[in-house]
Amino acid sequence: MIPSASLPGAHELGQRCIAAFTRVVPATLCAFYRIDPHLQAQDFSLHRMPAQMHQSYLQRYRHYDPLQPRHCAAAGRPVLSLHMGMAQQQRHEAEVYQGFLQRHGVLDVVEILACDGERPIAGLSLLRDSSLGRFSVDELETLHTLQGLLEIAALAPYCQVDQRLAGLTPREREIAWLLRDGADNKTIARRLDLGLPTVKTHLVNLFRKVGVVNRTELVGTLFLQGVAHQPSG
Prior knowledge:
Blueprint: H1 10-24, E1 29-35, E2 41-47, H2 51-61, H3 69-75, E3 79-81, H4 82-86, H5 91-103, E4 108-116, E5 119-128, H6 137-155, H7 170-180, H8 185-192, H9 196-210, H10 215-224
Antiparallel strand pairs: 1-2, 1-5, 3-4, 4-5
Helix pairs in contact: 1-6, 7-9, 7-10, 8-9, 9-10
C-alpha cells in the first residue's frame, strides 16, 4: 500500500493534468474537476481563472453551460467543443452563455471527460481567448488521443490533504500550492497574472486564515504536518 504522504493531493493532481494537457494544446484558462454521482462538477482546481469569474459561473451561469458533465455524457463524446455543445442548446440558452464567455474574453472552450466504465468521474475544461484563437480540428484530435491519460489520472489514488485547504478561496489555493513549490512573489504574480500588491494581499489573508506568520509556517501547516489543520473562517 502506498503511504498517503507520497501521493499527490487532489488539487496537485488537477494541476498536473492541466500542465500536461496545456503543454501539448495551449489554453488561456483551465479547470480540472471531479464529477459527483448526480453528474455535477465539484472540487475545482483552477489555473489562471479569476475567482470572480468562477463564482459567477457557479452562481448564475452553470445552468446554461452546454459543456457541463450531464450534457457531455449525453452527447456520448469524451471530447466536446463549445460549438458542438451549443448546437444542442436552445437559442436563448446559447446566447446567455456566449454573453458570459465574451464578458470574460473567452473565445472558445473544449471539455475532456474521464470515465470509470460509463460513469463520468472527472473533467478538464480548456478555455481560450482571442490571442490563441479557436481550437483546431487537429488539436481536438490530439485531445482525443490524450483523453485516456486523463482517465488514468482520475482513477489514480490521491491524498486527502487538500481538505486542509477547504477554507481557502480557489485563488488562495493556487498561491498555497505555488508556495509549496518554492515560488517567490514575482513568480506567483507571473504565473497567475497578478500584480505584486495583489499577491501580497493574498498572502496576508492566507497567513491570517491558517494562523501563521510566514510562508514557511504556511507550507508546513498545510502540507507537511501529520494532523490536518483546518483554516479558520
